[in-house]
Specification:
Blueprint: H1 8-38, E1 68-73, E2 76-80, E3 85-90, E4 97-98, E5 105-108, H2 110-170, H3 176-233, E6 236-237, E7 243-248, E8 255-256, E9 261-266, E10 271-276, H4 279-286, H5 288-296
Antiparallel strand pairs: 1-10, 2-9, 3-5, 3-8, 4-7, 5-6, 7-9
Helix pairs in contact: 2-3
Length: 312
């Protein structure tokens, strides 16, 4: 078949039309892409029967989360051993209701018992020493006061004699020497009375100081005796408050050291729930406070469509 000669002008126009069509197609594609990018996503479709319509209201968002759990007492107390000892008897078992002074178990400790006896004897000895010292010092003080009283009596007699001799000397019935001797004796006794009174005051101060020292010893012995008695009483294990005995974790014959937990008592009148929640639901519960804070500062819409049931 013979070749057909093509017109060069026709080929040029055909090439220009192709380029124009390509440019127009590119521009249309760019415009369409920009329009799609600026369009908002379409609302998802949902079955009308699954939707709940209502007005948006301000209020609390309640989330119900279910989980398995137990009720446990809020006030639970372990009872530790106050001193070293051996368990002699267990009087109460778990489940028993106890009062503050109920004896759960009894311990024995010869060392604690001997220390309590020694402390009582030391206290009695200190009190006896204080009593004897008080009696001795009181006797010494009475002797000093008796000597002072005797001097005061002698001075009073000497003063009366000096006054009489003074009057007689004016009548020339006694000599001047006798009058001076009477006056001197009265003055001497007056000075001795002052010295004895100061001595009595010093004796009182000294007695008070010695009694305070001995009383301090008595107080120290009394404190040690009280501490020993407390340790002796602690051999009887008591809860200290009313409740229910939950655990007794010692056995008869067992030796325990100070601080070892012997029993556990709980108050059954005050309970709390301990729940086991799935991790996904627990995260929702932990964020509940943050959501409430966010809703408190957010302006609610006046009205609108509800979302899916359960997520209002």
């Amino acid at each position: 078949m013979p070749d057909i000669a093509r017109d060069p002008a026709f080929l040029k126009r055909r090439r220009q039309r192709r380029i124009a069509f390509g440019v127009i197609a590119g521009v249309v594609l760019v415009v369409f892409s920009i329009a799609l990018a600026r369009m908002e996503p379409a609302a998802p479709d949902a079955d009308r029967g699954t939707l709940l319509f209502d007005h948006v209201k301000r209020g609390s968002l309640v989330r119900q989360v279910r989980g398995l759990g137990t009720l446990v007492p809020e006030d639970t107390r372990w009872i530790p051993a106050q001193t070293e000892g051996r368990v002699e008897r267990i009087l109460l078992r778990p489940g028993a209701r106890v009062q503050a002074d109920s004896v759960i178990a009894e311990l024995s400790s010869p060392q604690v018992e001997q220390e309590a006896v020694n402390a009582r004897l030391a206290l009695q000895s200190a009190e006896a020493t204080a009593f004897n010292l008080r009696a001795q010092l009181q006797g010494d003080l009475l002797r000093e006061e008796s000597a002072t009283a005797a001097l005061e009596a002698d001075y009073e007699q000497a003063r009366l004699q000096a006054e009489a001799d003074e009057a007689l000397a004016k009548e020339k019935l006694v000599s001047e020497l006798t009058r001076k001797q009477s006056a001197l004796r009265a003055k001497t006794l007056e000075n001795r009375i002052g010295i004895e009174q100061r001595r009595v005051a010093q004796v009182r101060e000294s007695n008070d100081a010695r009694l305070r020292v001995q009383q301090a010893t008595v107080d120290q012995m009394r404190a040690l005796a009280a501490l020993a008695e407390d340790r002796l009483r602690s051999l009887k294990v008591m809860p200290g408050f009313a409740g229910v005995l939950q655990v007794v974790q010692v056995e008869v014959g067992q030796r325990v050291a100070p601080g070892v937990n012997l029993a556990r008592v709980a108050d059954p009148d005050r309970l709390k729930a301990e729940l086991r929640i799935a991790e996904t639901q627990a995260k929702d519960i932990e964020s509940r406070h943050a959501e409430r804070h966010h809703r408190r500062h957010r302006q609610p819409e006046r009205s609108g469509r509800g979302q899916r049931n359960g997520h209002r």
